[in-house]
Amino acid sequence: MADAAVKTAPADASEAELTDGFHLIIDALKLNGLNTIYGVPGIPITDFGRMAQAEGIRVISFRHEQNAGYAASIAGFLTKKPGVCLTVSAPGFLNGLTALAHATTNCFPMILISGSSEREIVDLQQGDYEEMDQLAIAKPLCKAAFRVLHAADIGIGLARAIRAAVSGRPGGVYLDLPAKLFGQVMDAEKGEKSLVKVIDAAPAQIPAPDSIKRALDVLKGAKKPLIILGKGAAYAQADDAIRSLVEKSGIPFLPMSMGKGLLPDTHPLCAGAARSTVLKDSDVVMLIGARLNWLLSHGKGKAWGEAPKKFVQIDIEPKEMDSNVEIVAPVVGDIGSCVSALLAGMGGWATPPADWIKTVTSKRDENVAKMAPRLMNNNSPMDYHGALGVLRTIVKERPDAILVNEGANTLDLARGIIDMYQPRKRIDVGTWGIMGIGMGYSIAAAIETGKPVLAIEGDSAFGFSGMEVETICRYKLPVCIVIFNNDGIYRGTDVNKVSSDPAPTVFVKGSRYDKMMEAFGGVGVNATSPDELRRAVNEAMDSGKPTLINAVLDPAAGSESGRIGNLNPQSALKKKA
Ligand code: ADP
Ligand code: MG
User: Fold this and answer.
1) Which of 133, 163, 172, 318 lies most in the core, judged by the most C-beta atoms within 10 Å?
2) Same domain, 138 and 218
């Protein structure tokens, strides 16, 4: 008997107990360990949310579906189970789609479950309430999309969604549940039997022995090898094996943004602070769960230098190989299995030439030393380095806190300056460099890990999800938000020379974001110097109270588009205008 089934006393012995769509969906989720739903209530899923909560599922209600979706996506990254987002039809569904596409792009497992309108009316385009062919619209934006029309298919529908989300390369899945399905009644015993507990949802994918041998041969021939650890490596949760591989091989490693902390950034083999040198001068590069996309300059061009390079790539997705440059040793499989196989095959291993290690180490030490004094300034108003110097120390002292980070300069500088010490502690804008993940990520990180969260936010980036501070206060989450407030996008100094309208990139000068938090019973602090910032963050992290710190930055601090200003198209007519 499914425990949520409606237990009505049969009127006579021949009348069986009944269940319905509502209860079958709840039972199916619970049966598969999906115990948290991120969403926004409304027609036709309001009652579903209430019932799910009553049946022991944690239901986190947001103010906007996009933020609930981002929360679900990062829950997937942190747990390796699909994060579940629940939305209402048409507009709510569309609001959730950005996050679904984001999950797919970033290879995070997520299921967007949306209520939808009546098929018969939608398909004849007769103008139903919130009419939209949601399944068709979702399809190109996710790994797989399914619709369930009959209560008896709910178990199979959810099983397919789970497998699609987590097996192979993880990604977003859409599950369409028309309003009518929820109230459909069926025999409770048959209903329970129709549910599926997914066995081995993400089966190990063992690499071919030949591919391991080929990779080891290439690595053995290297004079200047490099390992790049991407967020796929963090996702895989093969932390010990990856650490052993790096240490046993003696090869310097470069962590991608969300790969930081797999091994500490302070590890002797970390080449994070020598990034341009290792990209340029390495001769063999092994990618582990990292794609050669724009974030790695597609593996070619100026950033990679003149010298010929050989690439080894470990990835679960065979089609990723040769996507940008030739991969001479593709290793296809899950990272845990691939790294273990490499370790097993290494045998007597000669570490890379000492002069290469020395080049990397001295470049790194030189860069770190150059940066150090700038991080210690106590300027007021603050600049990025003064503020980040403080936060860098706080993260060092609290290595198990989760760091959420978005913005332009706030992102680029924090990524470089703040060292991470543990895996999956840094979560950020990901493959698209998307703005708006801040509060959704913070909420999910607190809920999924129970750890304190420090969100370092540009003032512009924060605005995309700022209303969720109410959600943070409502659920009393241990989230400390620091807004790098420089009065605008990139900087707050642009001037409109032709009218009284503000320039497109500036905000209200001297805004007090801390007051937003106070409006909902949280703690708000206005910090005008690094000392004040340090005090406020430590207090927030100690108390676990929802806190927002308005860090007053010099409006002139910051550069256009942070470190990626080169991606802005330039008008050839600029001079004439
Ligand atoms: P980054 O942006 O950090 O470089 P990417 O998102 O570009 O990382 O790359 C992550 C890669 O990791 C993707 O190509 C994905 O297929 C791969 N991946 C994700 N999970 C696994 C896993 N468990 N085993 C192997 N590869 C994985
Ligand atoms: Mg700004």
Assistant:
1) 172
2) no
Q: What is the pTM of this model?
A: 0.96
User: Which residues fall inside 5 Å of ion ligand 2, going by CB?
Assistant: 458-459, 486
In a domain, 1, yes or no: no
Whether 200 is covered by a domain: the verdict is no
Residue 555 half-sphere exposure toward CB, CA atoms < 13 A: 13
Cβ of 295 below 6 Å from ligand 1 = yes
Domain CATH number, residue 313: 3.40.50.1220
CA distance readout (Å), 152 to 22, 185, 190: 12, 9, 8
317: buried, middle or exposed (CB in 10 Å: 19+, 13-18, 0-12)?
middle
Place of tokens 């797989």: 144
Name the H helices within 331-383: 335-345, 354-371
Q: In residues, how long is the chain?
A: 577
Residue 1 has a pLDDT of 42
pLDDT of residue 14: 55
Q: Report the nearest-CA residue for atom 21 of ligand 1.
A: 232
Between the CA of 334 and the centroid of ligand 1 the distance, in Å, is 10
Q: Whose CA is nearest to atom 23 of ligand 1?
A: 236
Q: What is the pLDDT of residue 575?
A: 56
State residue 78's pLDDT score.
Answer: 99
Question: Strands 58-61 and 426-428, how do they pair?
Answer: unpaired
Q: Sign (positive/negative) of CA torsion 191, 193, 194, 199?
A: positive
> Does the beta carbon of 116 lie inside 6 Å of ligand 1?
no
Residue 321's CB: how many other CB atoms inside 10 A?
16
At residue 443, the pLDDT reads 99
User: pLDDT per residue over 448-480, tens digit each?
Assistant: 999 999 999 999 999 999 999 999 999 999 999
Q: Let me know whether 415 and 340 are in one domain.
A: no
Domain count, the chain: 3
State whether the beta carbon of 103 lies less than 6 angstroms from ligand 1: no
- Site to probe by mutation for ligand 1, drawn from 317, 337, 339 as the one with most ligand atoms within 8 Å of Cβ, is 317
Which residues are 405's β-sheet partners?
Answer: 428, 456
* Within-domain flag for 489: yes
- CA triple 374-376-379, angle to 5 deg: 85
Task: Determine the structural domain holding residue 285 and report its residue range.
Answer: 209-362
3-state DSSP call for residue 16?
Answer: coil
Mark whether 284 and 148 lie in a shared domain.
Answer: no
CB 245 within 8 A of CB 343: yes
pLDDT at 31: 98
Q: Whose CA is nearest to atom 5 of ligand 1?
A: 290
Ranges under pLDDT 50 in the chain: 1-2, 576-577
Q: Residue 137 burial (CB < 10 Å; 0-12/13-18/19+)? A: middle
